[in-house]
Amino acid sequence: MIVNDQELTVTLERIAKFQLQISHLRKVETNPDNYHAAVSGYLAEIDRMQLEVREYLSLHPAELAEIGA
């Protein structure tokens, strides 16, 4: 779980890097089956991280302080 804005920034940067990697694979992979196999892990990790971002952003800072206490 993301607990502060620094972790949020790092997670958003990781999401962006994974998206760029997938974009690159779309350009260079000629076989659709290989493409799907190559990106499935990236997509699953992006989904997981986006859920963490959503959960963090859905909480007010005061609520985060309560959870951390």
Protein model, in words:
The chain is mainly α and 69 residues long. It is built from 3 helices and no strands. It is elongated and about 50 Å long. The model has no long low-confidence stretch (mean pLDDT 94).
Describe the secondary-structure layout.
Elements: H1 5-28, H2 32-58, H3 61-68
Helix pairs in contact: 1-2
Features:
3 helices; 69 residues; elongated; single chain; mainly alpha; 86% helix
Number of helices: 3
Structural class: mainly alpha
Low-pLDDT segments, ≥5 res: none
**Which band does the percent of strand residues land in?**
under 5%
What's the pLDDT, averaged over the residues?
94
Quick structural gist:
The chain has 69 residues and is an all-alpha fold. The chain has helices spanning 5-28, 32-58, 61-68.
